[in-house]
Write a structure and sequence with these properties.
mainly beta, four-stranded antiparallel β-sheet, 1% helix, Neuraminidase
């Protein structure tokens, strides 16, 4: 999930009004990740059905879907017409996203159990559970930088999940096991750590711009904003707004809508209009 450079001064003073849920049909879906596509669309990564859904954010209807050959873990946009999905069989599937259709392209082998993925400066950054760590790879799979518990000689990560990147070349990693958000530079050097009781078992993470990040606090049933410049953290949405075990989310810039999916299997997605 990459920085979208949304022109919003501060979400802590914005109005977030709940909209009707997006109904996705009758079958239960485990929406493990969501990512914005250029225009009024987003991709939903559905783990239990091994598929991606292309959602129209203007009409809130599903335009297309594609079934892959393994459980899906996380998805990012490489450019305006190509996505990459991390699969549970240590592969990355590239997907062509054109108009209202999804088509599978090349399949890339990786030697780690990828959990999170983001496009970064013409490379790909992935997080993994085994071993727990982060690495930067080329689009052909060559390792450019690697940082895990074995390379640094101590337990830095436990269960890193989703990752995002910002326009100042920072990489942010949400670690489900340590309950921390770690900020890294383009060489995977640690720049900053965020740890607060406001987020527990953080999962999804998106960057609205270089100084506004949103985190799904799965354990605290909330969406938390982080401001790296001031090291401040604020709850934006919680149980009273309908948030239950949030696992993934994305923001549609054109529609100014925040979509939130729960950690449990569901038939719908929550929608919040931001003004």
């Amino acid at each position: 999930m990459h920085c979208t450079n949304i022109v919003i001064t501060d979400l802590t003073v914005a109005t977030m009004k709940i909209q009707p849920n997006v109904q996705l049909g009758s079958e239960k879906l485990n929406i493990i990740d969501m990512t914005g596509v250029s225009g009024n669309k987003s991709l939903l990564t559905v783990s239990n059905k091994r598929k991606l859904l292309l959602l129209d954010n203007k009409t809130d209807t599903v335009l297309s879907e594609i079934v892959l050959n393994a459980k899906t873990r996380s998805t990012c946009m490489i450019d305006s017409q190509q996505a990459a999905t991390a699969l549970a069989n240590k592969k990355i599937q590239f997907i062509k996203v054109k108009d209202n259709t999804l088509e599978d392209e090349k399949l890339l082998d990786v030697d780690v159990d990828v959990m999170g993925i983001v496009s970064f400066k013409n490379t790909i950054v992935v997080s993994s559970h085994n071993p727990p760590g982060v690495r930067i790879i080329s689009k052909d799979g060559a390792v450019i930088h690697n940082m895990d518990n074995t390379t640094i000689g101590r337990e830095m990560f436990k269960k890193p999940r989703r990752i995002t990147a910002t326009s100042d070349d920072s990489i942010y990693v949400a670690d489900w096991g340590t309950h921390e958000i770690t900020r890294l530079d383009s060489s995977l050097t640690i720049l900053q750590k965020f740890c607060d009781p406001l987020f527990e078992s953080p999962c999804g993470i998106i960057a609205l711009n270089r100084d506004q990040l949103l985190v799904c606090s799965f354990g605290n049933n909330s969406i938390v904003q982080i401001r790296p410049s001031t090291n401040s953290m604020t709850v934006l949405l919680d149980k009273q707004h309908g948030i239950q075990k949030p696992q993934s989310f994305c923001f549609c810039k054109k529609q100014k809508k925040l979509y939130v999916a729960p950690g449990d299997e569901t038939t719908s997605v929550l929608v919040y209009k931001i003004t």
